[in-house]
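Here is the promised in-class demo. Please do not try to memorize the tokens; focus on the logic of going from shape to residues.
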């Protein structure tokens, strides 16, 4: 048997070895970069501190893992800054949630034609799976079909700022833009048309040489290209436009027709849409940007965009960790882009909002990026909580040029009185003459 002294010596040796081992593990963790400092809320990530913060964490997630490679590039090389905010749940309108729960189990999708059947209102596909080959298509339908901005909505005005990285603000485009859902409406009747899904209209109000131009787009329910009409003020006539205009730049901006409010297209117009992953990113889910102040004479204060500071397209907002679906969209052969990578909200099944996208040119090289945020407000007419976009920024990385739409806060209204007759070629002509 071991003596009492021998046992004590063994205990001391074991304790000493354990302490040495624990210290060694701690040193390895620190030197290996696993032990990270927590970044304080309110920290502004910029080109000046990005590299120093990449190995630190925010909400216990490494900053390196919260930023996509393109986001890192935007911060390091394109003047984008991100103010960190703690994540909060996205509010859900009770009426939207109830409508989804009442109707979602009736909704199906044809795997060959991609036709949606049985959809009434709410979110058509609240349950998304990475294993579902149609998961990406369902996310696009969720965004396009859900009345997340109201049954009818209007931006008045919508402002698009054209900005050059060297020379700053080049031109402004002001317009009144409205959209009306004709199917899938949250209010009754849920359906106002047999063959149309939605109608949208844009009237340009500035600059003077473009004032009086109007565009009407009628999106069909069967996946066919939309019927589009333009009011040509020189001849005071409405003319039918090419159905392929959805692929063209919008009003000479960096924004394409299928990118309004982040995404404005039918999934059947693309070659392929699929989920390629799920991850965390930094995104604006609760925008704190105050939006436009029309009483301010200084353009920077007027639009809430840092127009006086190169590269002139940055703005302040609050970026929080969000879990997203990463979706790859393959464009048709005649599209200006070859593919786009979209990042859709994944934590909240009632809000399939695309926070970001990356567009690649026909050579497969990174071409443009878009980021947009989200805020909510209560309507006074339908007593609904609706979502609206915060500042939207599209950067052409190859030209070092951007288009920024300032926050719509205070300039977006929803669920006001409107009728389908307000969205016809005849109505377009009457409103502009």
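The designed amino acids, position by position:
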């Amino acid at each position: 048997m071991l003596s009492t002294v021998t046992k004590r010596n063994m205990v001391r040796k074991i304790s000493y070895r354990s302490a040495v081992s624990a210290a060694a593990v701690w040193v390895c963790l620190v030197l290996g970069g696993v032990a990270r400092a927590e970044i304080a809320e309110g920290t502004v990530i910029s080109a000046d501190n990005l590299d120093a913060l990449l190995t630190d964490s925010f909400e216990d997630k490494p900053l390196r893992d919260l930023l996509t490679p393109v986001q890192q590039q935007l911060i390091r090389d394109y003047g984008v800054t991100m103010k960190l905010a703690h994540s909060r749940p996205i509010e859900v309108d009770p009426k939207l949630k109830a409508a989804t729960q009442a109707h979602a189990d009736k909704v199906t999708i044809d795997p060959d034609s991609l036709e949606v059947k049985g959809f009434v209102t709410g979110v058509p596909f609240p349950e998304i799976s990475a294993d579902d080959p149609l998961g990406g298509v369902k996310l696009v339908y969720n965004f396009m079909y859900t009345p997340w901005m109201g049954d009818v909505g209007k931006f008045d005005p919508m402002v698009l700022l054209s900005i050059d990285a060297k020379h700053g603000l080049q031109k402004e485009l002001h317009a009144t833009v409205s959209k009306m859902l004709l199917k899938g409406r949250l209010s009754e009747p849920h359906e106002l048309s047999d063959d149309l899904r939605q109608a949208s209209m844009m009237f340009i109000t500035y600059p003077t040489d473009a004032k009086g131009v109007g565009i009407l787009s009628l999106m069909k329910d069967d996946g066919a290209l939309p019927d589009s009409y333009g009011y040509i003020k020189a001849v005071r006539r409405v003319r039918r436009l090419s159905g392929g205009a959805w692929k063209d730049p919008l009003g000479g901006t960096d924004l394409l027709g299928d990118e309004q409010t982040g995404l404005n297209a039918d999934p059947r117009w693309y070659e392929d849409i699929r989920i390629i992953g799920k991850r965390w990113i930094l995104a604006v889910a609760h925008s704190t940007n105050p939006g436009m102040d029309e009483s301010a004479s200084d353009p920077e204060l007027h639009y809430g965009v840092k127009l006086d500071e190169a590269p002139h397209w940055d703005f302040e907002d609050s970026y929080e960790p969000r879990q997203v679906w990463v979706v790859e969209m393959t464009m048709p052969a005649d599209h200006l882009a070859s593919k786009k990578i979209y990042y859709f909200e994944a934590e909240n099944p009632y809000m399939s909002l695309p926070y970001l996208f990356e567009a690649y040119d026909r050579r497969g090289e990174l071409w443009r990026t878009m980021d947009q945020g989200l805020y909510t407000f209560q309507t006074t007419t339908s007593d609904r909580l609706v979502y609206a976009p915060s500042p939207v920024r599209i950067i052409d990385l190859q030209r070092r040029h951007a288009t920024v739409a300032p926050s719509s806060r205070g300039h977006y209204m929803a669920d006001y009185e409107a009728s389908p007759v307000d969205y016809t070629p005849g109505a377009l002509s009457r409103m502009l003459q």
